[in-house]
Amino acid sequence: MNSSANRDYLEQRVKTASSAQLHLMLIDGAIRFADQADKAFEANDADAAAHPLKRAMDIVSELLAGVKHSQDDINEKLASLYQFVFTRLTMAYVNTDRQKLGESLQILRFQQETWRAALEKAMAEQAESEGKAAAADTPIAEGPKGPHKPPVIGNPLADASLPASDGLSLEA
């Protein structure tokens, strides 16, 4: 893909993303730039680490600004965490300290895993609720003997309110 196509794709992705997806995208970007800086530190090239470290700091600053707008407990905890990461990135930048950068990366990667898991769970729950809503809107199929009842899964005899005939049947 060329640069223009990449930019268009990213722009469309950002426009259609939820706030949680945008948050994860920012974390992904911070990790990508911090990894670049770490590789430069590994090669003893502090000058090459400066630009990606600044980019990682900018992104973490945006993450911090995004959670400071609300004073609820989770946002306050996230704000403290991102402030810690920002401070560590700043120390890594000023002192060319790879250990501080490593601490930042460790926290960012944990945040990445957490946000990914939360998004996957939310998407699964949304798909499940949409499936239930679609099933509720689906009309009951009429057969030659009237409406078809779906089979009851499990042991219907365990619930005294269900007649035994509502269980699974082997008859055609």
Layout of strands and helices, then pairs:
Elements: H1 3-16, H2 19-42, H3 46-67, H4 73-95, H5 98-137, E1 142-143, E2 146-147
Antiparallel strand pairs: 1-2
Helix pairs in contact: 2-3, 2-5, 3-4, 4-5
How much is the average pLDDT?
A: 80
Q: What is the chains' assembly state?
A: single chain
What's the Cα radius of gyration?
Answer: 26 Å
Derived from helix and strand composition plus strand pairing, the structural class reads mainly alpha
H and E order: HHHHHEE
Ranges where pLDDT stays below 50 over 5 or more residues in a row are: 148-172
What's the story with the biggest beta sheet? Answer: 2 strands, antiparallel
Strand content bin: under 5%
Enumerate the strands of the largest sheet in spatial order, edge to edge or round the barrel.
1-2
Number of helical stretches of at least 4 residues: 5
Q: How would you characterize this protein structure?
A:
- It is a single chain.
- Strand 1 and strand 2 (about 145) form a beta hairpin.
- The chain is mainly alpha-helical.
- Residues about 150-170 have low confidence and may be disordered.
- Strands 1-2 form a two-stranded antiparallel ribbon.
- The protein is built from five helices and two strands; from the N terminus they run αααααββ.
- The protein has helices spanning about 5-15, 20-40, 45-65, 75-95, 100-135, and strands spanning about 140-145, 145.
- Helix content is about 70%, strand content about 0%.
- About 15% of the residues are buried.
- Helix 4 runs antiparallel to helix 5.
